[in-house]
Design brief:
It is globular, with a radius of gyration of 25 Å. The longest helix has 23 residues. It starts with a helix and ends with a strand. The chain is built from eight helices and 20 strands. The strands form five sheets. It has an eight-stranded mixed β-sheet with strand order 8-20-14-9-13-12-10-11.
Length: 347
């Protein structure tokens, strides 16, 4: 309806005091990984010592026999480089001024910082599935950790052809997913009590797997609600969330499978979070800020983890504005890639 100036000159618009994110995707994998990050306190690299061969010295000793005291090297170090991803927050002086007072609906600085922080998290979430470890230009990722040399011949600066125990599980051209293929993949990354803590896949593959469940199981999920995967674990349903963010999950062998819109098409990752994590570096003289999600509502509800750094507002040298810088600093690291896997080509 077109109102006349009789009313439009004396009546303001009703502005909803909330920004609604219509572009970013859900990122449950990053939520879990960042929520359980580890510190990268100092050092030019993150070195992970691994045992890659069993000692063959020693053995039975007969009476009067000679002891085998040969020294044998059984350990080597994987090496990971620190990476940094950045986004600026730019606030013009005039914009800051006109945003003050009774006419303000939302705080400009808080809203812009919150929105840019979510965009930065979305970028990092893409690297979780696509990073290639190109020194100086890319994070590591699930993609190169869960590989058997098919696509990445080295990991942690070590050649997988030489150090075969750092090969992840990788199977291509799955086609239509089956429980038998799920079992093969799960068995390949399960050793002793170490087994996947989370399965990450696309919404399409998640729905395909759901159809493989017995009708009674599927009916139970749909009637009682799906279990909720949160930042720190899995709870029974919405009633137990108590303010936490929860994502629908179904189970395979007691392990939650979660759909992540950032996951690469036709893939399923088997992740053991004990051996795959984000090592974050907190920069000196940088600040920790609380991204509450109160102003910008959307799927990117990420925790404030190690490695998230805010410079504070700085006076720009070439424009009448203040500029702040948001960073994630660190890397995605697997300390035992043989316990990480991926299934690809799921149609």
């Amino acid at each position: 309806m077109q109102f006349s100036t009789v009313v439009s000159t004396v009546t303001r618009e009703a502005i909803v005091p909330k920004i609604y994110d219509t572009i970013l995707s859900g990122n449950v994998g990053l939520l879990r990984i960042l929520g359980n990050s580890k510190p990268w306190k100092s050092g030019i690299r993150y070195d992970v010592p691994i045992k890659y061969v069993k000692s063959t010295t020693g053995g039975l000793v007969p009476v009067g026999g000679e002891l085998d005291t040969t020294r044998q090297n059984t350990r080597v170090k994987m090496q990971f480089e620190v990476q940094r991803i950045h986004k600026p927050v730019v606030i013009d002086d005039i914009e800051l001024a006109v945003n003050e007072g009774d006419e303000r609906v939302l705080d400009l600085l808080q809203t812009e910082t919150e929105s840019i922080a979510q965009d930065l998290g979305d970028d990092l979430g893409s690297y979780l599935y696509t990073g290639t470890s190109a020194t100086g230009s890319s994070f590591d990722s699930l993609l190169n950790a869960a590989d058997d040399s098919t696509n990445f011949s080295t990991y942690g600066a070590l050649a997988r052809a030489t150090y075969t125990t750092i090969k992840g599980y990788y199977v291509a051209s799955i086609g239509e997913i089956s429980l038998a293929e799920m079992a093969t993949a799960y068995d390949a990354v399960e050793i002793g009590n170490d087994q996947p803590s989370m399965l990450l896949t696309t919404p399409a593959v998640w729905s395909d797997y759901e159809t493989l469940l017995q009708p009674t199981v599927r009916a139970g999920y749909q009637m009682n609600g799906y279990p909720k995967a949160t930042r720190t674990g899995v709870i029974s349903g919405k009633d137990a969330l108590r303010g936490d963010i929860g994502f629908d999950s179904v189970y395979y062998r007691g392990t939650p499978m979660v759909k992540d819109e950032k996951c690469t098409s036709q893939k399923l990752f088997l992740v053991n979070e004990k051996y795959f994590f984000f090592a974050g570096m907190n920069l000196p003289n940088y600040k920790k800020i609380n991204i509450t999600g109160n102003n910008v509502e959307g799927p990117q509800a990420l925790p404030i983890p190690r490695g998230f750094n805010w410079s504070g507002l700085l006076r720009s040298t070439n424009q009448p504005a203040q500029v702040g810088h948001l960073y994630y600093v660190g890397n995605f690291i697997s300390t035992n890639p043989r316990l990480i896997g991926q299934m690809t080509g799921i149609t």
